[in-house]
């Protein structure tokens, strides 16, 4: 039973407008029980949260849609549009669903990995291009891509600015998408527009972990999953040498902090997305980028293959529905 707030209500509501966007859904639910004004405010925050998973970090809002499956309006996680390094400075909370839009500058602690770059002894950024603006096939930067399996783009080491045409993967989620609830797979990402084959869609953003930390979290997530519905979004990527030996291993965990790529489900037929590591000139690490591997229609679910199927004790059932379905989800060896 909720009650009316007393005479100090306008001040209370003003303070609540500032504080409530920082709360988790569970905290928000308990605060909303205290009085009608806070209940109303919590409801509007929930509505705003479900209307944009990206909290304004991406160009287009990314809504959660769950009309028929259950009563979950959204998933709570911290949003980062790019890779970040775990740091003690990282804020454990991020405002979401308040009446004012969160700007990138409002959350600088979430952007640490963007500033990682290669520099020489004097601190000068290395390995970028000297172009004013990169455009067209005549630009030397156009020939950077396609040299090997790793894509190459202009980046922090280049003189050209953010408007340069050779930075297709640097501007966040590039197409309209929505997050749709499914009775068996949980949330999944669907396209909200036609996506032409070959187009960059988004990168996989999250916390960049050491292998030791990835192994620790993997064990912990497995434990949580065995007790009920829990979806981890810990991805291990290996960049191979031509000899086939792994030379670089990236552990990206989007479970607690990530972008919308954390909602892409697995399909045993390979799905409609392919992945490629893209290296920006001057950046220390490559990023895992997703491209449309075929033409994708409006409302189609975006999926890719999580990897090889391995027999293990606590394997999860696969509901990808493809004619080639193996029946179980691939599991990553961390
Ligand atoms: C990266 S998350 C994908 C988003 C997730 N569905 C959610 O609700 O947050 C990976 C998890 O999604 C679920 N999942 C992904 N693909 C699936 C599939 N084909 N069949 C069943 N569950 C799937 C599994 O629980 C898996 O651990």
TrEMBL record:
GO terms for cellular component: chromosome. Residues 175-307 form the SET domain. Residues 314-330 form the Post-SET domain. It comes from Flemingia macrophylla. Keywords: Chromosome, Metal-binding, Methyltransferase, S-adenosyl-L-methionine, Transferase, Zinc. This is Histone-lysine N-methyltransferase SUVR3. SUPFAM superfamilies: F-box domain, SET domain. The lineage of its organism: Eukaryota, Viridiplantae, Streptophyta, Embryophyta, Tracheophyta. One of its GO terms (biological process) is methylation. PANTHER family: HISTONE-LYSINE N-METHYLTRANSFERASE SET-23, HISTONE-LYSINE N-METHYLTRANSFERASE SUV39H. InterPro entries: F-box-like_dom_sf, H3K9_Histone-Lys_N-MTase, Post-SET_dom, SET_dom, SET_dom_sf. Pfam families: SET (PF00856). It comes from the Eukaryota. It is found in: Chromosome. One of its GO terms (molecular function) is methyltransferase activity.
């Amino acid at each position: 039973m909720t009650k009316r707030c007393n005479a100090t209500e306008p001040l209370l509501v003003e303070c609540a407008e500032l504080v409530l966007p920082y709360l988790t859904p569970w905290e928000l639910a308990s605060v909303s029980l205290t009085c009608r004004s806070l209940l109303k405010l919590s409801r509007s925050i929930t509505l705003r949260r479900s209307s944009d998973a990206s909290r304004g970090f991406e160009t287009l809002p990314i809504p959660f849609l769950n009309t028929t499956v259950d009563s979950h309006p959204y998933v709570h996680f911290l949003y980062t549009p790019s890779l970040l390094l775990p740091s003690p400075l990282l804020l454990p909370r991020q405002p979401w669903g308040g009446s004012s839009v969160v700007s990138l500058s409002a959350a600088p602690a979430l952007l640490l990995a963007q500033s990682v770059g290669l520099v020489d002894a004097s601190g000068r950024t290395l390995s970028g291009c000297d172009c004013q603006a990169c455009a067209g096939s005549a630009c030397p930067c156009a020939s950077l891509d396609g040299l090997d399996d790793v894509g190459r783009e202009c980046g922090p080491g280049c003189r050209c600015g953010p408007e340069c045409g050779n930075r297709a993967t640097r501007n966040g989620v590039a197409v309209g998408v929505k997050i749709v609830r499914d009775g068996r797979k949980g949330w999944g990402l669907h396209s909200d527009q036609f996506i032409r084959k070959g187009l960059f869609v988004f990168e996989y953003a999250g916390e960049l972990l050491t292998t030791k930390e990835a192994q620790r979290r993997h064990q912990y997530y497995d434990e949580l999953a065995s007790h009920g519905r829990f979806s981890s979004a810990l991805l291990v990527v290996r960049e191979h040498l031509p000899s086939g030996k792994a030379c670089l291993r990236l552990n990206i965990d989007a479970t607690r902090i990530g972008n919308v790529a954390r909602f892409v489900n697995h399909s045993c037929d390979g799905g409609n997305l392919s992945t490629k590591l893209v290296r920006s000139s001057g950046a220390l690490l490559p990023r895992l980028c997703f491209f449309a591997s075929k033409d994708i229609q409006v409302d189609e679910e975006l999926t890719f293959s999580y990897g090889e199927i391995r027999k293990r004790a606590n394997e999860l059932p696969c509901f990808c529905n493809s004619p080639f379905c193996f029946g179980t989800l691939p599991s990553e060896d961390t």
